Amino acid sequence: MASGNEPSLEPRTRPHVMTIAGSDSGGGAGIQADLKTIEAFGCYGSSVLTGLTAQNTLGVQAVHVVPTDFVIQQLQSVISDELPKAIKLGMLTCASTIRALAQEVSKLNTTIVLDPVMISTSGHTLLPEDAMEALYELYPHVDYLTPNIPEAKKLSGWGHEVKNLDDMIELAKKTNEKTKSLSVLLKGGHAVVSREEVLKYVGKYEIVWEEGDDEDDTVEVYNEYKDSLNVNAKPQKDLVVDLLVKEGEIVAMFVGNKVDSQSTHGTGCTLSAAIACSYAVSPGAADAESLIPIFKRAIGYTQSAIATAFPFGHGHGPLNHGHLTMRRALPFSPTKHNPHPFLTHLIQSDLPLWKSYVRHPFVVQLGKGTLPRKCFEHYIKQDYHYLKHYARAHALGAYKADSFEDIKAFTEISLHIARESTMHVAYCQEFGVSLADLEATPESANCSAYARYVIDIGTQGDILDLYMAVASCLVGYGEVGLWLKKQVAKGEAKVERNLYGRWMSDYGGKEFLGAVNRGIGEIIQTAN
Q1: Residue 1: what pLDDT?
Q2: pLDDT at residue 472 above 70?
Q3: What predicted TM-score, i.e. pTM, was given to this entire model?
Q4: Active-site position among 53, 264, 270, 308
Q5: Does the annotation mark 269 as catalytic?
Q6: 168 and 312: one domain?
Q7: Same domain for 146 and 247
Q8: Is the pLDDT at 249 greater than 70, yes or no?
């Protein structure tokens, strides 16, 4: 008898997202970029062509305008069959097409995203002056408008140079007011904004930082690992800021590092299509609060598509639209922009939990020297037991390893932990805790549970399972050591005249952090 809880055997539906734009023969922009993006988001893509271009990574050589009546014929054909949940508008080619589309979309109950494509990167005019005027008939029906700074200046009539973030804010508001669009995302790729300018607005506006770059949420081990690879680990002073404005008010600032890449052809197309898809896959109404995750997801997708792009052509190459769907859903492939994508994904998936672990009151009090001594003595007694299990786990890794190189590496780690245990005993004696006391202390339930978990996972799984089981320990201690060092520099923790200063120096020291970097490298290599 059926219980009513059986899984459905019917195929799941996909949100329908339409692109109305031109075709890029080079494949990097236009409907080609849009449809790749739509597929990456798990949506179903349909397309209405407004123009055909002869172009490549070096530029646009020619544009063939599709007749207006045929553009509308395409649109009506698709919507009569299945109404899109969102429509992305790109290159619209001529005034008559824009006016006809304005009439058509005004009848539709769907979300409209407009990327006001006017001039190509190579300088080719894609929209004549009379068509720009016709856009004002379309704007009232647009939910999200995504101009870059030159486009916003043209749309709003702004006659000044954009010199700083204050100018960008005024330009975004002016564009929102002039176009009468519900929301405007002013793309900041054409401007350089200093970190100091952004920090000036903390508390005034919602600031959405790139993952791992929040002034408060930076994961220190990321920077340490980048440093070991000779990749710039310091937070960039110059940033890219995208501004989201709704009904004249700043909803959010999206702040990220500029990705140094020649593969930027089709960035605007990709972002606007990603916004349409991000909206289509999001539940509920798009109020100001829910807009932030919609745009964050779209911006993050586009930035990663640039960072993971492969070389193509002799000019500005295309983005890697398939970076979310290639082989595995999890991000494993390291780049200079993010050499630790797998760990970034894991930590960012529950950042509050991670912070509660590495910035636990125990850690904070230890750094200030206010931690009760009996708490620390309990910790070092339990840590002695844990070191045994930690050594056993790596010995298990040697047993699981397939190569002599890995067997040697795991064995050396076990030997290093055994040597570390003698130093741990000597350290405990400074607190009046003898080896006999350590051996006589019962293992706590918490220590036993985690240690058994590590051994159990290592026994049942493979090398990567074992690495991940101990990663919270290895990476976590490295993060604590680096974070406390940062707190000392800020005057919020101390090493001098601190009973626990040596512990802080050890875990923030070069030798231990070298082990952390090697461990992160092993995780990344094994995951790949």
Answers
A1: 45
A2: yes
A3: 0.68
A4: 264
A5: yes
A6: yes
A7: yes
A8: yes
